Amino acid sequence: MPPLTRSVLLPRVVLAGLLIAALALPSVAAWAGEPFYLRLGARILVFALAAVSLDLILGFGGMVSFGHAAFVGIGGYVVGILFAHQADGSTLFGWPGTTNGYIVWPLAMLAGGLAALPIGAISLRTSGVPFIMITLAFAQMLFYLMTGLKAYGGDDGIALWSRTSFPGGPNIADHATFYYVTLGLLVVALGLGWRLVNSRFGRVLRGAKDNERRMRALGYPVTRYKLTAFVIAGALAGLAGALLANATLFVGPQYLHWSRSGDLIVMVVLGGIGTLIGPVLGAAALLLLEEFVPEAMNLVQAGLGEHWKIVLGPILLALVLFARKGLWGLVTGGNRA
Amino acid sequence: MTGASPSAAPMLETQSLVKRFGGLAATDHVSLSVAAGELHALIGPNGAGKTTLIGQLSGELAPDSGRILFDGRDVTALGVDQRARRGLARSFQITSVFPSFSALDNVALAVQAHAGHSFRFWGDAARDRRLSDPARAVLARVGLAARADVPASALAHGEKRQLELAMALATGPKLLLLDEPMAGMGPEESARMVDLLAALKGSVTILLVEHDMDAVFALADRITVLVRGAALASGSPAAIRADAAVREAYLGEEGEAV
């Protein structure tokens, strides 16, 4: 047990504070009569989950996937497509549609993981910039596939009338309940992710990020381990997608768009690459900036808010230059090391 | 440690190995034999093809023709990691460690590579004594016990070279392929490395590629001289010293070293 110096104590205090704030948000929103904050909070948690899944491969495995939103989108489409079939009573490969969460959410994870398997197997034959470009290309292929899929709304996507149901379980049609379910899943994902990156498997992943050639010379079949991590991250992103569909009651091709993948990378970098908890902060920071900076700019001059990324750019630049471990690094002091 | 017992079959053998880059035969029908338990040195002037040969032995380069036998089996078609799992460990000419890991964790990662598969997602590897205990023992063996918790990136050059050796040793290899372990070292550090290798000698088969002639002639049981891609001579240090062709082709250039 290390002594409780600033660098050990402060992160714990901040973590506890964050958790308390997250738990209290629904009550605060209800008390303030601002249900909008609850929806924004749920949205942050959903993107946090997606960003954490990206951090597993980007931050710990050194795999800069520029197509991670594709797996989020696939998870969302599983919810949307099964909803659409249930709504019009049609079948898919002989199976009826459903909104049963015990089936739909695991299927969304399965679909995310299954999609990640061939994409990862091909992309991992490369590394560095080619890896970035190939993952981007795969994601854009899926984006155009969904755009062309007229049966499921094409460009327009699928609007959902209701959220996924959990018979005998929590009623997530209630906004606060949905929020808490999402928070619970995020906390579980963080806990499992923490175990994973500190396990033998996680060490192999981090070793491959540090020095892949050396890993091979030690006898590790590196690609197999990286692919496994890629599939796990894909499955987790699929779950985030299922949650996103429920949060917005909508799925569309834009969920898979490369700019969404870019947003996820920004969240990871902004919050702290390779820290797991950092991307949660990054997701919160980016979505809050996205929400309130344009509003503030519009107050200065109507229409100015459109250009809010002029503000985001310098913030990102400053963090990359002065805080290599992002927002979480400011808490742990990891930036000085 | 395995591979200590001397036997008739060589630990490593190359049969007429050829590797061409364009018109240049970087490896020209090299037939090399490293007996189990011996310390075999590979020397040759710059451009003799040592690096290319090591690339093929470790599996990073595929030969154009010829075969590589390791521990009695043909490994010519096997990849780097497969050869490593069969007991071929190497060190790199340019230090190759995991900079963000501590010295102990560098070695623990090497131990883990040979402790079954690593599809273990739950237990905390840092507290796993099945990894850290053997790692500490190997660190002590190379004289780095006191530096266990220092990040590899903060180690001195000589210490990184020792760590490199520790990682290769920690895999419990049958053959150590050491690519210029004294590269960039001062005289004191070199002397320490020679002592280390002398202590290791006999307990594991070693193929040593080295420029430091004093070290080579002090340590080697046998020496193979590589010149322009071909094995010019192979024999005991005394025989190599006396070999007229070697003197002419190689030692003539750096004769002052012998």
Automatic annotation (TrEMBL), chain A:
Location, primary (coarse class): membrane
Bilayer topology: Multi-pass membrane protein
Subcellular location: Cell membrane
UniProt cross-references to Pfam families, sorted A to Z: BPD_transp_2
InterPro entries: ABC_transp_permease, LivM-like
Transmembrane segments: 40-58, 65-83, 103-124, 131-152, 177-197, 227-252, 264-289, 310-331
Annotated Gene Ontology cellular component terms: plasma membrane
A GO term for molecular function: branched-chain amino acid transmembrane transporter activity
Alphabetic keyword roster: Cell membrane, Membrane, Transmembrane, Transmembrane helix
Protein name (record): Branched-chain amino acid ABC transporter permease
Species whose genome carries this gene: Azospirillum griseum
